[in-house]
């Protein structure tokens, strides 16, 4: 494993406490901000690795020095792409949401991407509130010249599928500045967002399993609405939304297209053909069927060689170890998944 | 098979654990209701340090919609993914036949005299010690 270079595409930094974020908020938000999480569907066992609590105190993922020891140094990671969890996408007030997003970006730039990042190992994500796409575009513009922000990110929780036109100011800004949009689970079915299942599931196990449904709907929407035709430079990365559903979904979409092309005449290619040029998928949580050969077949069917990027989801409870999350892979495929695909995609 | 004295019984309260390295292997020793058990400190899933996980109980098999909680203190949950293992057997709860962690024999034995000096005194065995055989 030591010979494998690694770019980890889903690592979560947390502020030590809510005052770290409050510092960057102006009134009236400064007082109003409580730093509350997503509200319900909490993991009933534990939400983060128990051994990820920093010895000096604070929540898991809040100490850059300890994170370096436990993740970056332990596995020899070249880069970690950081995705903070602001949970602002559930708020009905778009101004409050945008203020929190901006505060998280200021905090990340000053801390993880700033004073703890002399060697540039940390790459960041620009948090946006998609409730107000124009404000989100301005926030993207504010950070576009920063050397260590490599993507824009949003929760998968939304009020409408992401291919729809109200979001286009975000995609225009992403295209203009060459930043992909990362979609990460969170706030699905919470606050103002709809739940991608028919109603609210009862248990965390249901909710968590079904997080991939929102991703499937967003991906089909991006493709069929013609977002990739309208914004030829726009790229998307689906983070933590599941992996092995992709081939079957695209088979179905391509099959539908044969009869229903009439409805989406702007598509110049088969729907599935947009994926390699515009979409990347991160690995964690990687599905592990009973037989490794079945997973290897799925990886081949989904073009993992070009579109799959390794992620660990440190420090969360379902962390995937770079050493043990995958079955044995052919060496060239392994290099692409663990390093080459992300290096090219993020232009690192 | 190596014999390793780990500690005095009185130094491990009921419900406590101790993680030691024996012959290069990290091993967790647990005191569960008067008995001692030793497990390899590595989860068979992704090699997380299993023995630093939460010692707890579990929901027992039941009918749909019914919760029966039991076996308190007999279950350790992996600190990463939360998988449940039976401290008494090392077997996972979800699939005891195919997912299990290695266990080691533990004996409680009379303690030897701790030191020998030139001048000898009468020695009395007063307490027992925990010994792991691997």
| Outline of chain A | globular
Strands ordered across the widest β-sheet of chain B: 1-9-8-4-3-2
The proportion of strand residues of chain B reads: 35-45%
Morphology call of chain B = elongated
Question: Got a strand count of chain A?
Answer: 8
- Give the biggest beta sheet of chain B: 6 strands, antiparallel
H/E topology pattern of chain B: EEEEEEEEE
Tell me the radius of gyration of chain B: 18 Å
Average pLDDT over all residues of chain B: 92
Task: Indicate the proportion of strand residues of chain A.
Answer: 5-15%
* Portion in helices of chain B: under 10%
The largest sheet of chain A, given as strand count, sense and whether it forms a barrel, is: 8 strands, parallel
Distance between the termini of chain A: 21 Å
In short:
The complex is a heterodimer of chains A (348) and B (134). Chain A has 348 residues and is of the alpha/beta class.
Description:
The complex is a heterodimer of chains A (about 350) and B (about 130). Chain A is of the alpha/beta class and about 350 residues long. Helices cover about 40% and strands about 10% of the residues of chain A. Chain A is built from 14 helices and 8 strands. Chain A has an 8-stranded parallel β-sheet. In chain A, helix 6 links the parallel strand 4 (about 150-155) and strand 5. In chain A, helix 5 packs parallel to helix 6 (about 170-175). The longest helix of chain A has 22 residues, at about 95-115. Chain A is globular, with a radius of gyration of 19 Å. The two termini of chain A are about 20 Å apart. The relative contact order of chain A is 0.14. Chain B has about 130 residues and is mainly β. In chain B, the strands form 2 sheets. A 6-stranded antiparallel β-sheet of chain B has the order 1-9-8-4-3-2, with no helix packed on it. A 3-stranded antiparallel β-sheet of chain B has the order 5-6-7, with no helix packed on it. In chain B, a hairpin with a 2-residue loop joins strand 2 and strand 3 (about 25-30). Chain B starts with a strand and ends with a strand. The mean pLDDT of chain B is about 90.
